[in-house]
Amino acid sequence: MVTSVLLALLLGGPALASEIVGGRPARPHAWPFMVSLQQRGGHFCGATLIAPSFVMSAAHCVNGRNFRSVQVVLGAHDLRLREPTRQMFGVRRVFENGFDPQNLRNDIVILQLNGSATINANVQAARLPAQDRGVGNGTRCLAMGWGQLGNNRPPPSVLQELNVTVVTALCNNRRNVCTLAGRRRAGICFGDSGGPLVCSGVVQGIDSFVRGGCGSGFYPDGFAPVAQFADWINSIIQRPGGHPLPHPRDPASRTH
Asked: Where is the Peptidase S1 domain (predicted)?
């Protein structure tokens, strides 16, 4: 993650994020749509399989990154192991929808794979909402990711999950979905952005940003609202087209 983003978090502003603080290990392959985005063998962001040849993630995960060096890993649970359940692909094309990095709006990207996933018990496409059929305040959901367990703690090797409650009414920016993890210091954190927010079996959000530090227990965490982009998503995965991003540079200073 770039230095300016880290400073924003430490000073209480919004910071790109998405790791799990205060959660628990998920049951192996309980979430077969969960995806690990990797570069040079290391995990840097989460994503969601939405069709055999497409995954959905946060736009800031690939913004300024050489997408041709990104490896998409399906069917993973423990990132330390060479699991036989894994399927690995490269990225063929990148589709964005007006990402605004200054205001953290439209933080969504679709990556077209260079092949088609084999759907089985460990690799499945997620359910998505219909256009504008979002999630209401008070709804209980599940966030997940392979990110750090705290501001100064290393990431876990196995997928983590966390129960959260939708509190979008408390957010200044109603264009995103906001959540809190009840009366405790838990939530999303650095480096695993792009993972799903699952509500009643439907992916309603994409891990995007935090305020006030990881798992502050006070500031809500932010997710890009999938329901606002449902028609756009379907236009891509049902009839591939649109305009891919130009081949971006891959600055060495950018990490997640």
From this structure: 20-238
